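Objective 1b: paired records.
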Amino acid sequence: MFGKARVCEAYGWTEGGWVTFEVKRDETLLAHSVGWPTVGNEVGVFRDDGTRCEVGEAGEVGVKAVTHFDGYLGRPDATAAAWRNGYVMSGDVGIFQADGRLCIVDRKKDMIITGGENVYTAEVERVLHEHQAVLEAAVIGLPDARWGEQVTAAVVARPGVSPRVDELQAFCRAQLAGYKVPRRIEILDALPRNPMGKVQKFRLAELLQSPRSG
């Protein structure tokens, strides 16, 4: 409908402001990319010990910006926790690319650790969304006695389609390392969302761990 339209993407968060920007072009499309840091924003990706990650290494995104917040009203402890080495931290897991673009691959709290391996839920969700029978998908980690966490997916099918779990797993296995493939996939009528439309993964975890879903 809008053949000549330009699609642009900006990334930021309430406390940090808008920090990256990219005009999408077919020849340079990159999954999970949110573009380059914008003027006035110093963006970094950091390890848990506070040191800066190398290019290609995953860590938490932080920013020194011209528009970041000063703090939470009446919450000094929360304000202190939001800062590290002068950067406002996002809670997002990012990876800088060699061309300077930033890719956002997960929320830090949503990252799954299974058998000692890190699994970024956004990567698995992206693959599931590419399946022609999938309308929506959300991936979470559920407790597992052997692996620590089990990669678990909830899928909403497109109208009139009934995807099989083994079919979806095979589709993922063709594009992902074996440890990233969901060991459990549940087909749901809808994903739990908040009033802003964001998937509530804590509610999804409660739902999938309830006796009726087992």
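Objective 1b, second protein:
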Amino acid sequence: MKNGLHDNNQHGRIWRIRHADHTPDDRPRMLDESTIELLRHLEHPNGWWRDTAQKLIILRNDRETVVPLLRGMARFAQNSLTRLHALWTLEGMGAAAPEQHFTDRDPRVRRAAVQIAERSFNILDFGDFDLRKLTPLASDPDPRVAEQVIHSLGTNVISERDEIVNGLVITAAKKHPTDKGVMLATGISLWGKKDLPFTKSIFENKSDLDPTTAAAWKAALSNWNRGLKFPDDMPKDDQRFIQNGETLYFKSCVTCHGGDGKGIKIAGTNFALAPSLADSKRVHGDPEKLIPIALHGLIGPIDGKAFQAGFMPPFAALGIPREDRSAEILSFIRYAWGGEISEVITKEQVVTAKKKHADRATPWTDVELKD
């Protein structure tokens, strides 16, 4: 009452609160500005102005007219945030040249350049990027840049390039051996590669790292020891198929289903993010009831029980559109938690199911898959 707020009627209930000593900026009028006028807002000290200008430029029909100016800003603007926004604006327009920014003086720009370049050497896009161009960035003095190199290379699983990938990841790991982010990224990107000199030295306690750092590395890499054992008579190709699925599972599925396949429990509650795969009749049963989930996802309660995640996305939404990769994950799940079912699900089975349900555009429900 003493502030007089009750006297302000017919003005809505949303108030702008500011410090008495602060003078607000001018109100934005970006929708009334030309595309070239929007460029100046990429230099604004307020992040909202930069983000909004970036979005509007990308949405404009005449955006191609400012590409040369954006390229100049991305390379030569004095403010590093201006260069960063200009670079991501170009990326949104499909006009970025990330290699030109690998040597930028700001690590945030170098890191963004690696992220943008990633699509050109990602196996899913069948890129032919010369990975050796990343050598200076793997040795970057900033650990976040080196970490990004490791993460980006972790998406590249082309066997013909493994030697280069492994070398770059290890270079980055050795550059920043005590950095937790680098350590975890390396563990994911080199998943299961115990015979590499770097990882082998850690497991055998023969590394050049100090004892505390070596112990931390050994703990981080211990996640590789999943205890996955195969019968002697199982074909080696099937073993590798399941092992590939294990790697993909722990990259894409472990966040909700957990390392033990029993679903991540929400602390302090009896709820789980996702259902247990270890207790799933679908995992143990007919693959034809399991494969459709990989193709279209699953939504709603399962056996009458709701889960906090609420929706199992299709594998394509997790960055795994290929049928053979889907088959690998499903084969691993069935072997790990389906009673060691050694008969793998094949790419051909996934392709057949994809054709059978070609008209399907929505996630499955538990009831549908039981019918």
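Strands lie at 298-299, 311-312, 364-365. The chain has 18 helices and three strands.
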